[in-house]
Amino acid sequence: MASTPPVARKVPHELAEHGDVRLDSYYWLRDDSRSDPAVLAHLRAENDYTASLMSDVKHIEDEIFAEIRGRIKEDDTDVPLRRGQYYYYERTLTGKEYVQHCRRLVPTDGHITVFDAMPVGLDAPDEHIVLDENVKAEGHDYYSIGAFKVSPSGKLVVYGEDTNGDEAYMLYVIDAESGEYVGQPLKGVTSDIEWAGDDYLVYITMDSLHRPDKVCELFFLLLHEMCPGSCSRDL
Q: Which domain of life is it from (predicted)?
């Protein structure tokens, strides 16, 4: 365990903007790829120092964490939302860190009312797991889905996946029933995703500084083939 705090080394780096030059001696700590060995080594040293400093209260941390987790119903389902012919909801499982995105068929063609409720029990339509984040997260130290949107017809699903914490998402489109991928994923987009009907998907790209910069669209031919779209304008 580290007994003294790590000190980041200084590496002079000039930044020139708008005719002004400033010196940033810690610019080397910026690592958008999360893979620079020197940056990772420094972060590990900081974590080791924190663990050493807090070691005498580690048992209290564990007790508090266990108490908080003990008050949470881990095997749970959120309130279903009826959209079209399906009820959509998220399910959490005991001992699992991520949710399952599920749906059930609506057993009637009647209109939606305030008394509408998803049937449960032996006579309820079978549950279909559209996407299990626990499966997708396997092999990743970090995993987050920033958006999960079903097309109006219920045939396609788009979701944004982040596996390193930089909030630059990889965009995937899958067949809602089979889970098979449709087309190729899009890299480096925000979590702002919307369907414009069943034929178009609207999303926002990022520039080199991870700032939203363009609104783009994808076109789907017969709902199963992803076609090149266009970026309509700068933000």
A: Eukaryota
Range of the domain at 121: 73-138
Residue 180 lies in a domain: yes
Q: In whole angstroms, what is the distance from residue 170 CA to residue 147 CA? A: 11
* Pairwise CA distance, residues 184 & 157, whole Å: 14
Reply yes or no on whether the pLDDT at 233 is more than 60: no
Three-class SS of residue 65? Answer: helix
CA torsion sign, 54 to 60 to 63 to 67?
negative
Is residue 63 assigned to a domain?
no
Tell how far CA 148 is from the center of its chain.
8
CATH code for position 157: 2.40.10
Q: Is residue 65 in a domain?
A: no
183: left (phi over 0), alpha (psi -120 to 50) or beta: left
User: Which of 138, 163, 185 is at the close of a domain?
Assistant: 138
Those residues whose C-beta lies under 8 Å from the C-beta of residue 63, and which sit 6 or more positions away, are none
Q: Is the pLDDT of residue 16 over 60?
A: yes
Distance CA 132, CA 190 (A): 21
pLDDT band at 235 (very low <50, low <70, confident <90, very high): low
Predicted structure pTM score: 0.77
Q: Do 152 and 218 lie in a common domain? A: yes
59 in any annotated domain: no
